[in-house]
Amino acid sequence: MRQSQTAPEYFDEGALIRVLTAEPLDRMLDYKAPEGGCHLGAFVEVPLGPRKVIGVVWGAGKGDWDIKKVRAAYRVLDAAPMRLEMRDFLRRSADYTLTPMNAMLRLATRAPGLGDPPSMRKIYRRGPSEPERMTDARQKVLNTLAEYGDLSFRLKELAELAGVTTSVVKGLVEQGAVAEEDSPRDLPFPRLDPSLPSKELTEDQATASAYLADAVQSGNYGTTLLRGVTGSGKTEVYLEAVAAALRAGRQALVLLPEIALTAEFLKRVQERFGHRPAEWHSGATMTERRRIWRMIGQGQAQLVIGARSALFLPYQNLGLIVVDEEHDTSYKQEEGVLYNARDMAVLRASICGAHVVLASATPSLESWANAESGKYKRLELTSRFGPAVMPTMKTIDMRDAKLPANRWVSEVLKSEVQKRIDAGEQAMLFINRRGYAPITLCRACGHQVGCDDCDARMVEHRFQNRLVCHQCGETKEMPTKCPSCDAEGRMAPVGPGVERLGEEAAELFPDARIATLSSDMYGSARALKAEIEAIAAGGADIVIGTQLVAKGHNFPNLTLVGVIDADLGLQGSDLRAAERTFQLMRQVAGRAGRAEKPGTAMLQTYQPEHPVIRSILEADEEGFWRAQAAERKAAGVPPYGRMAGIIVSGTDLPQVFDLANHLARMDGPLRAVGAQIFGPAPAPIARVRGRHRVRMLVKADKTVALQGALSRWAAQVKLKGDVKLAIDIDPQNFY
Asked: Do residues 315 and 296 make contact, with C-beta atoms less than 8 angstroms apart?
């Protein structure tokens, strides 16, 4: 797939061209250049069987096909050609992740209507009037428009989102409740002004921002780890780096782990630069996605705030990539193309001469190790901004709590929460479990309700009155009798989730305003964002949440964080269990005391003497990282070794195991480079979505060229039936 250095930049009409499509093919296809010719990298519409598909001109055709049978491309699309650096990025990402090129192209073309010519279109937004007569259907349309603010919609898109027919929308247009406007399909984004005044910076912040501004203006690749305690103003520092990129006429990308929830961040960006940036995430409308994709390619979008997939947008002149909360596990794509956005950000920046900022209060061990070795520059922000100070950390030994079986908030924590409510402050109760209860059990026979398609227990979600499988998303009605022994009225929830904790809080604090934050309790990300804004403005006394609340939110009046089951994440065999528990606890504790009032974090634990819990309390971060590094180095695992997860899956278990065993026996290509293979063995969750899963683990020295060996190893077998083989380079999960 490597592009020839001598490939022509332009192909005359009828010349043979090689086209990469996003279709599941194992090769590129030869076509004749369309009428008028085409440039290298052009987006073209080509025939594939009876269909028309979109592809990219990747080079000159091979000519190994009967020239008379080669079909001509239909036309060149009205889109900026894919730049050489983008093609190089896709190729190198494919090589690193062992992903077919067609799948990489699919990532880079996730915008609807790319083949549509520029034209006017009808768009719909909230009108000035109210309907004469309100109906349920009309209310749904108005609620949808209110939920998305001032965004515009196509007719069909608005109707589908509201769950109504298009005639309902047209009826509201006639009454002036919905405005119908003619608009160009794709409008440029307003120009951002980097000269607007920034917030006053501390000495640490000013030093860090000056370094980053110089690094961006140099136009050379580099990576900086920006480590700052929670509330230290990392955002203000890297926004100055964004300003430097804009002044240099280059584009900037800021990746966030929960893009749809960061209303406060977007407000801050608007204050700093005068306008809102482009937002690329699952909450954006199809109309907006097309516009963003096109405007980025034309250089008409200077700043993109995005989820991990924003890395694959067609930037014209990318000068800065910021990965905020770079340690967050959501940056790893676990289905389809298995890539880590943090690593791919570094790769993309190295290709286009951009600077990367990895920002976190609790960096990943990988980034910490790279900074220690001198590969990354390291900048430190050691104190909170203004009068705020880091919270006091305490443990509550649950072995002495003597709580009843249906209670999880200790008396000590209850008393502390009540003090905060009495003082007019906010408290947070945190538990890292969604739903009401993780297990639904029959008290007569002991049966635990599991998913029909997965080897996993179903989680009760009382808010929805359903059982939900967190592996595949399947749901069931709450059973009234045991599916195994038919006993009536003996089904009982076991263990706490965030909803159950909310129920307990309502009993303990009947007069308090309680807000429960969990991603599955709101109809959309925008509704959740609105709730977070209301909490920050003082709309709740007690906030109950999952790890969603640990991701950079700022609640100025929150002075207490109580963690339920602080040692939950220390169980299991994940090599990053200690690291992730440390990160999560430090992050969630950091929500307390971010303004003038001091904060306290209290961790309920059954293992207060555990080394990780001790490290959290003592705030000895460097000591913790050094201890973790020593353990990983001794074991030869990332970041001091290389690892790949191999998953063989299919509906026929014997067939899956036969293939896995066959692969394990044919490990010559792996042994040749000094790699070891462990397994095969059933995966911890051995069946997901009806497919049986068998895992293997490949381990090698850090210097080993593992991808090439894995490719040669996997090429020894031909997959039959519905059996699939997935290779995960540097796996983050081992289920």
From this structure: yes
Helix (H, G, I), strand (E, B) or coil at 574: coil
Provide the CA 575 distance to its chain's centre, in angstroms. 21
- pLDDT recorded at residue 64: 79
Q: Which residues pair with 179 in a beta bridge?
A: 125
The answer to whether residue 193 sits within a structural domain is no
> Pairing mode, if any, of strands 120-126 and 75-76?
unpaired
Verify that 371 and 397 share a domain, yes or no. Answer: no
Q: Is 495 left (phi over 0), alpha (psi -120 to 50) or beta?
A: left
Q: Angle formed by the axes of helices 611-618 and 577-589, to 10°?
A: 30
330 contacts: CB under 8 Å, gap ≥ 6: 257, 258, 308
Tokens, residue 722? 């519905």
What does the pLDDT read at residue 5?
43
The total number of structural domains in the chain stands at 6
Instruction: State yes or no: cis peptide before 680, omega within 30 of 0.
Output: yes
Q: Scan for tokens 């608007």, then name that residue.
A: 270
Q: What kind and span of H or E run contains 158?
A: helix 155-162
- SS3 of 277-341: CEEECCCCCHHHHHHHHHHHHCCCCCEEEECHHHHHCCCCCEEEEEEECCCCHHHECCCCCCCEH
Burial of 33 (0-12, 13-18, 19+ CB in 10 A): buried
Phi, psi of 705 (to 5 degrees): -80, 80
Cis bond before residue 639 (omega within 30° of 0): yes
Q: Is residue 190 within 8 Å of 275, Cβ to Cβ?
A: yes
Yes or no: say if 512 and 456 are a contact pair by the CB < 8 Å rule: no
Task: Give pLDDT tens digits for 454-467.
Answer: 999 999 998 888 99
Q: Are 606 and 704 in a shared domain?
A: no
Instruction: Find out whether 398 and 512 touch, Cβ atoms under 8 Å.
Output: no
Which parts of the chain have pLDDT scores under 70? 1-7, 117-120, 150, 184-185, 260-261, 384-389, 523-526, 552, 572
Q: How far is CA 248 from CA 196, 245, 273, 302, in A?
A: 15, 5, 15, 11
Phi, psi of 332 (to 5 degrees): -95, 120
Strands 251-255 and 120-126: unpaired
Q: Please, are residues 655 and 728 in contact by the beta-carbon 8 Å criterion?
A: no
Q: How far apart are CA 343 and CA 332, in angstroms?
A: 9
Q: Which residues sit opposite 441 in a β-bridge?
A: 448, 492
Is 219 in the same domain as 347? yes
CA 512 to chain centre: 33
At 716, list the tokens: 């020894």
Note the Cα 248 to chain centre separation in Å: 29
Q: What is the pLDDT of residues 622-660, one digit of tens each?
A: 899 999 999 999 999 999 999 999 999 999 999 999 999
Which CATH number is 301's domain given? 3.40.50.300
Domain hosting residue 691, numbered range: 642-729
**Interatomic CA distance for residues 246 and 190, integer angstroms:** 13
Q: How do residues 55-110 score in pLDDT, each as one tens digit?
A: 999 999 988 778 888 999 999 998 889 999 999 999 999 999 999 999 999 999 98
Assess whether 597 and 503 both reside in one domain. Answer: yes
Transcribe 61-121 into DSSP letters.
----S-GGGPPBP-EE-SSPPPPHHHHHHHHHHHHHHT--HHHHHHHHT--TTTTSPS-EE
Cβ–Cβ < 8 Å for 639, 365: yes
Domain boundary among 637, 670, 703: 637
- What is the SS3 assignment for 439? strand
